[in-house]
User: What shape does this take?
Amino acid sequence: MIPDKTPVGGDTFHGAADLAQRAHVLSFQKYKELYLQSVQSPQEFWGKIAKEFYWKTPQTGSFLDYNFDHTKGKIYIKLMEGATTNICYNLLDRNVYDKKLGDKIAFYWEGNEPGDSMEITYKDLLQQVCKFANVLRAQGVKKGDRISIYMPMIMELVVAMLACARIGAVHSIVFAGFSSESLCERIMDSCCTFIVAADGFYRGDKLINLKLVVDEALRKCRERDFQVSKCIVVKHLGGTEETCADETSTNPQSPPAKRSCQIPWDANVDVWWHELVKGASDECEPEWCDTEDPLFILYTSGSTGKPKGVLHTIGGYLLYTATTFKYVFNYQPDDVYWCTADIGWVTGHSYVTYAPLANGATSVMFEGLPTYPDSSRFWEIIDKYKVTTFYTAPTAIRLLMKYGDGPVKRFSRQSLKILGTVGEPINPEAWHWYYKVIGNGRCPIMDTFWQTETGGHMLTPLPVAIPLKPGSATFPFFGVVPAILNESGEELEGEAEGYLVFKKPWPSIMRTVYGNQERFEDTYFKKFPGYFVTGDGCKRDKDGYYWITGRIDDMLNVSGHLLSTAEVESALIEHPAIAEAAVVSHPHPVKGECLYCFVTLRDGHEFTKTLVTELKNQVREKISPIATPDYIQNAPGLPKTRSGKIMRRILRKIARNEKDLGDISTLADESVVTELVSNRCKTT
Ligand code: PRX
Assistant: This one.
């Protein structure tokens, strides 16, 4: 499957020559050798890596035990059964005490406002985590309890997640852009007893009053008979209860910005973070957990509408994220690494928090936006901290490309060695701009394909060893066995296109959907027994390179974030004017894809500009601003089969202004199509 010789197509890029001297994997042959070892003797391969980490007690059962075939019984994956450990101990105590990295910077934190920054060493991070872990314990949080975290990109977010991990509590982080409805839904699904939040934050020049959203979510929970016992609030904007207008930030280096936010306060539930940690001890014995104990739940969109709580466990997640980080970014101790993802998404979990800390790395953590105060912010930060490894999303690259080369050229970016992308396919134009303009043609681009469900990189190049092809995530990482299947579930060899699946488990594969094993099995294992189904289409070229072709289920990828069409449709239908809705994806120059919605009105309602605005707001409020539709079209009738199924295939073509709509003979009423075509929204 993996070629014997280094692929040398005309379109391969190697990146910098000076990287080669320090590469962990020096050649394609070496990659192949390690890869074969990893899949032929996983126990030996991962067992050796496991020795680099701390296990309180060794494994007692088999190294890897699993079933991927639902026809043979329950789906399960168990790694290093019986071993006990603590991931926080491995990320912090081990680095501080065994590796003597206490004084090394763990994070440079860069705030939304330029000039608002701080840094934290491994030793200080450990102390802060211990303090907050003691606070949680004192509040009655126990191993296995679920804690919801709803925070901006501030250091307390990392502290809170690691404090949970230290005491064996399971964090469920909700991206701070999600609505109160989405937060409520997630809190209730995983029965979170506590929530950790912040008063508010600025995204660019926009104030986000986070606490208001939390209160609204908790009110919704109460209406549905669910009560969260405490809400711990970080005073990020320096607010006081009820009113905090014109206060400056608690950060002494912060400029006296015009900050203001009103904070509602319920003394029965709300409690300030800083008051709780004030007297807490900075020593805290970790909870020793089984490697298969849950580490976190992270919600991802599901094609049936309701988000799925993807559950990851401790040991395998630690091994895999740490190893991918080391090899994919060719990590060296003097690197400064920056992943721009928000911790609210899986990229932030794995590659802002867990993997860099597991390697003892120094990272940049950024609260703000790529375009605030102007579109050179990323490049300015790279020079400020001498970033060597920069990992971002294609949507950010496309956005910044629009501003031209000028804002980039104002900064040297000399420190850069490796670039990375994640979240969606990268179009060749954006790839070349990233490579030539950002990386000055010196830095290889790691196009990493993976998912919330996979925990870490699955298909990815390795610097130096794997020649790049723009737009291809190239080859499988160690331990990953991909296959391409046709509709009948047959494996396709050589050049082929079909469903991307994985044949064997890798250490950080999700273990279940929280509280819903059946949904786990149905979503990922039912269609092709014996395989983990990604939901993505994929092509293999003549050189064995993998190319992701996009989702093949009812999911959309907007700016690298997965959304389900069903989720957006149900948000639209809740509007009193809407009888029916169908949502399809439409290409977008910056976001990759955007939402094109067809709505059928109830009798007595009119399709007006006001209604369109109301519908857009409704989706924003029910889900999040990311889900805001770009286009809403009046659809007096929708194309349906005689059995009543909406034919989204036809709607997609109408939205894209394709002339050939394919076979429409199975429609109950073909005339609806003509009307839809003539009422099409003008798109860009
Ligand atoms: O469709 C693939 C796309 O993002 C999906 C996973 O989304 P999520 O779980 O939110 O995780 C995103 C961050 C890991 C995948 O099913 N995707 C992710 N990375 C790539 C990609 N598509 C193409 N190329 C990638 N590098």
Remarks:
- The CA atoms of residues 251 and 544 lie 52 Å apart.
- Confidence is low (pLDDT under 50) at residues 243-258.
- The pocket of adenosine-5'-monophosphate-propyl ester is lined by residues 300, 346-347, 422-425, 447-452, 473, 534-536, 548, 551, 557, 561-562 (CB under 6 Å).
